[in-house]
Amino acid sequence: MRVPNHVAIIMDGNGRWARRKGLPRVEGHRKGAEVVENVVRWSAEFGIKYLTLYTFSTENWRRPKEEVEFLFSLLVEKLETKVPELIKENVRLRFMGRLEDLPEKLKNKCREAEEMTKSNDGLNLIIALNYGGRAEIVDAVERILREGVTEVNEEGFRKYLYLPDVPDPDLIIRTSGEMRLSNFLLWQSAYSELYFTEKLWPDFTKDDFIKALEDYSKRERRFGGVT
Q1: Which residue among 22, 111, 193, 200 is buried most deeply as judged by most CB within 10 Å?
Q2: Could you tell me the mean pLDDT of each successive run of 10 residues in the chain, 227 residues long?
Q3: Is residue 208 annotated as part of the catalytic site, yes or no?
Q4: Which of 14, 38, 60, 207 is catalytic?
Q5: CATH 3.40.50.720 applies to domain 6-131+168-217
Q6: Which of 5, 12, 14, 130 is catalytic?
């Protein structure tokens, strides 16, 4: 099986999963966090080099305050308890997004985790946090203007993205049956292969992950060229 170098996942369906089970929405997020731990292990197992997870978007601030606060507290909890495990498994943790707008405690935990894992050279786990594809492009343009750059090409523009050294995703997976990118990696996804599954994120299994990888391995990528 031809395994993608970079897999990105839009983890959708936590709220619907909880609603169908008569549970509070936060329980969907708690269950979804368990699946995150699994998919990190699976990615390392299959030799995937980069895994990007769409964790909290710039639009997610519109959700109820209690839900947002729970998500942030859950992230802090996971960073406090799981970073030693990431170090042991040689996983490098990185973040992309407008981290400066996050609560101070969470922002500090993110920076600490990045520092603690920066020497790891196995799987690169990238958390898109307070992230929006349009916001990333706007922030890149603002940086270009601040630096007084008057000419820029595609390669030059890439240098101003949040993580310019990370290659574009080969495969983007979205769960829950929705078929859109939802403002995720708009610049980087120009030639990404897209895979959609009806499974809600908390129900996403290793078999589902393998199906996505197998589907990717059968595709012929031409990047705008001819066969």
Answers
A1: 200
A2: 96 97 96 98 98 97 96 97 96 98 97 97 98 98 96 96 98 97 98 98 98 95 64
A3: no
A4: 60
A5: no
A6: 12
